Amino acid sequence: MTDSNTIIRIAAKGDGVTADGRHVAMAAPGDVLLPDGSLEHGPHHAAPPCRHFGTCGACQLQHCDDAALAEFVHNRVAFAAQSQELDPAHVAAPAMSPPHSRRRASLRAINGGGRPLIGFTQAGSHKVVDMRECHVLHPRLFELVRPLRHYLAQLKGRYAIAIEMTLVDQGIDLNLGGFAPEGLEQTETLLDFCRDQGLARLTLDHGFGAESFWEPEPVTVTLGGYPVAFPPGAFLQATQHGEDALVGAAREWLAGCGRVADLFAGLGTFALALADTSQVMAAEADAAAINALRLVANRSRLSVECAHRDLFRNPVRAEELAGFDGVVLDPPRAGARTQVEQLAASGVSRIVYISCNPSSWARDCVQLKEAGYRLQELRPVGQFRWSTHVELASLFVRQA
Ligand SMILES: C[S@@+](CC[C@H](N)C(=O)[O-])C[C@H]1O[C@@H](n2cnc3c(N)ncnc32)[C@H](O)[C@@H]1O
């Protein structure tokens, strides 16, 4: 029998929870809470690999071993399904992205008493953790931090720069928000920095949108084998591993569907992967993203029809879905309540719902269950290793 002081699970925000329901920071399943409040480490308590763990806001779970991490990701998704009685027929083992695989990141740089500090912020704060190592970032992104720190060392006074880094086909796409070089000298050293680092692109955003400062050749990301123009700030799945897991699920579950709708399509992560086997209708609210998808679809003569559409205000209606055999949707964190309402009322036989928020997903999917869809498959996905951010792929099948 489990002792009431034993940690039995990790809660959604990363605390360990004892068998009698107390929350304990930095505790892994199997640890035991001692009477003096300290922890006796159990078999799933790992030595955190990073010196910044505990202060850096990017990771909450480095004290958990791989088995405990996978269990956390599984439980988050399974509990969300359970909370709405979705009762999945099959739950797959979580697809966990490996260390050093994150291909996009939002960092921050500030002047820390005369020298630049660059890194993720602390949890719930604007304080910057000056990053000296990182176990989640792709090494190519991490390698840029040191030269960037060196470049920023010439700046005087207060600054707070929002740094967006994405690994694209040509190298690193960097956006600096809230920064513009002052004068010829800073501009020239910034150009030298871009050249020396072999940046794919540098955009600067001082409040009016990202402006290209350096882009020796057009920046692309390859999706489904097709290079798609990558608009500054566009969405890309956090790791290649995660993208492969999500796309693999969609391809497998929608195999044999003649006509498929890809809703919240972004640059076409799913549409382009499905286009060799299905006719695809892709809908997306971001004009730059859907235009980039349209361009590559036209150029490569793919059967992908693109619609620029706000699916919150103007969801694809049930009548419009007549003739579609399958739908994949991958909405933002808020979910897609009104769109799912229309899906529930449609006759579409297979719905693949990809989500980065198990709670909004479960809430939305109640509508599918009530309309006669069955949750056939559930695949938890841990793209944000060591964080509490969990994703999933799910397949709903209309019951006859
Ligand atoms: C999680 S991303 C998924 C993108 C794409 N499926 C992928 O995997 O790369 C969510 C997408 O929803 C889009 N989006 C957000 N609000 C929207 C809305 N109201 N209508 C349509 N698309 C929206 C975003 O621009 C973004 O491309």
From TrEMBL:
Pfam families: tRNA_U5-meth_tr
Keywords, alphabetical: Methyltransferase, S-adenosyl-L-methionine, Transferase
Active site (catalytic residues): C356 (nucleophile), C356
Binding site for S-adenosyl-L-methionine: Q237, F264, E284, D330
Name of the protein this chain belongs to: Class I SAM-dependent RNA methyltransferase
PANTHER family cross-referenced by the UniProt entry: 23S RRNA (URACIL(1939)-C(5))-METHYLTRANSFERASE RLMD, RNA M5U METHYLTRANSFERASE
Gene3D superfamilies (alphabetical): 2.40.50.1070, Vaccinia Virus protein VP39
Keyword hit for GTP-binding: no
GO biological process, one term: RNA processing
Organism: Aurantiacibacter zhengii
Recorded superkingdom: Bacteria
Family membership: Belongs to the class I-like SAM-binding methyltransferase superfamily. RNA M5U methyltransferase family.
GO molecular function: RNA methyltransferase activity
The UniProt record lists the keyword S-adenosyl-L-methionine: yes
